[in-house]
Amino acid sequence: MREIRTEDAVGHVLCHDITQIIPGVIKDAKFRKGHVVRSEDIPVLLSLGKEHLYVWEKDESKYHENEAAEILCGLCRGDYMERSGVKEGKIELTSTVRGLLKIDTELLDRINGLGEMMIASRHNNTPVEPGDKLCGTRIIPLVIEKEKMEEAVEVCGGKKIFTILPYRDKKVGIVTTGSEVYHGRIKDAFGPVLKEKVKEFGGEVMGQTITDDNPEHTRKAIEEFITQGADMVLVSGGMSVDPDDKTPLAIRSTGARVVSYGAPVLPGAMFLLAYYEKDGRQIPVAGLPGCVMYARRTVFDLVLPRLMADDPVTKTELDKLGRGGLCLSCEVCHYPNCGFGKGW
Asked: What is the CATH number of the domain that holds 122?
């Protein structure tokens, strides 16, 4: 930091705020620390009584906070994102589409661990809408060593920390099991719920087939939807461990690869996720427990956005849902603005 005449300050970076005071009107910083002085600023600075300024001494081994912020933004920003302008070393990113926010959490942690820079974000695997804020980035000091930013670039190795997977226009088949529904003894309550949830993410329900408790009938219904071009099949009912609950058997008998039968989430512990391979495609087949029919939010609400964005789900990821996998069934539901399902 050095002191120079205000008239000689064009192009230099202020090391301190300069406050403007007009009694009864304003008392605020007219120029912020980090501001690059322009020729048109000189008369204003002089009018504020600033004959001399303290400025950052230019050093080719360092970046100004705004220069470094641009580099950090480039490491974060993937497709379908808008950025804010840079101010005091800060840049924010927002979504331009409906989709699923994916975060390389390992890279995020490593960048934040470097020091002198920070990234604060939403949770990984969060559904986002156009205009939703994704993250805020900031360079902490006024100037930062170029070597530090080069290290950040090297850590990322060409990868983006944030990506958005837009939802796909998926065709979805629904298979509802249960002799009580099949024979008309009770009214089906699963169909309307599932249709509404699929519609929320832009999917198209091809149809709904109701089967009895015979797993062979359920298997055929699943395979018929796949033959008709379904991108996903949802199978509801018959998911517990009672002897007459045969839905898991029916899903397995299609030859689908079962990722997991059971998830550390309440409501939704008896959830089953499998993938049926056809023509090189991995078609999700999900077995949905009864809670999906009546609970406001369940494991299905956590997994569905990923399935609609063609984001494969692994058993390891499902296992991590135990951290935050307990829905508190609040009287007023604030999901997704709560801790439910943020473990992955």
From this structure: 3.90.1170
